[in-house]
Fold these 2 entries.
Entry 1:
Amino acid sequence: WVPLSSAGPTRYTVRDGANEPVVAGSLTWAVTDLAGKSSASYFVNIPVGSSLRLTATGPGAALQIDGDGNGAFEHTGAPGAAFVTAYATAGSYVAAAKIDGIPVASITVRAIDVSFGGPTACEVGFTREKVVTITPSLPAGVLLFAADDPGLMSVSFDGASSVYLTPFARGAPVLLARFEGTGAVSHETSEEI
């Protein structure tokens, strides 16, 4: 993970095993604009412990944002101003915005936690079930499970709570939980083969 700054671009460098730079660049933390969105149909999925920069744009002078859905509009400023909201606990949150006291938008933020329950000993060529706990409950297809190297292990998911692992070789392949659509890694664990 690269910690981002809300103040501007964050520089990064990826190095190889000999500590030589391979790739360098900068990342800018995007702002999530709530304008025109409804929490009934617009969802943002993030790993638990992540933060979002929230805003709402539109005519008016005073923006208020309730980032965690508790009814208290903790952020105030001009429309278009961005405010950081942290999601430290797994769950679903309705982030809402008002401009000049009038509700203008909301989104549902799902701060997702995956508990792998520790490593699962597997035998090459045989399938083992691994029970995972996903918080909050999610519709099918939001999370996908895969091996970091598909040449080492086959992975399938029943869509609820069981991941099936079939290793092709000895080692410690990494099991990934990814967000559908973006492919971003939500969580990972190493398995013993």
Entry 2:
Amino acid sequence: FPHAEVQVAPILWITLALIIAGGIVFATSLKTRRSLPPVDLPGGESLPKTPLQKKAARALFAVVLLTAIAAGCIAWFWPLAWWEEDAVRHPVTATMLGGLIVYLFFTMEAQSLEERDDGSFDERDSAILARSGSGVGGAMMVVVAAWMVGLMEAHHETRLVPTYYLYLIFWSCVMTNVIASLAGVLLAYRRA
């Protein structure tokens, strides 16, 4: 990395936090799946993907890709350089805003599916969508905790955490919220 003299601890802690947050979302989805009514199909057939499920998969892929690009740029240029150089900060911020726009379109499409009366959205979809955000709070708490521990460990001697990390914490929480919500939709569709 170009700025390797800066301590790597916060990046490692946030990576660990994201793994734990994914586990929380998965565990919450298991609980959601168990609360949904079972669907028995003849001959071992499986349910086809619903329109909501397809839209959630596309949105999750796009949001994860955009978030990974933004995180990669921040890791490559390092947070200080990212904060001080507009040529880096503006495209990274635009990339994350792009992820939010993808999520906005997903929620608008989900709402339009719900309003249609053609059978493309049923009670199961409604229950899954209503409970899809149940793991978001836990995932965000893990991410915030990882940032706090990582930053306090990295800056323990001076007890001064650079302010540009606050911006990164904000975006980490926002994107964790979006990714956990979309993942909650997809995980709830999986058969227990």
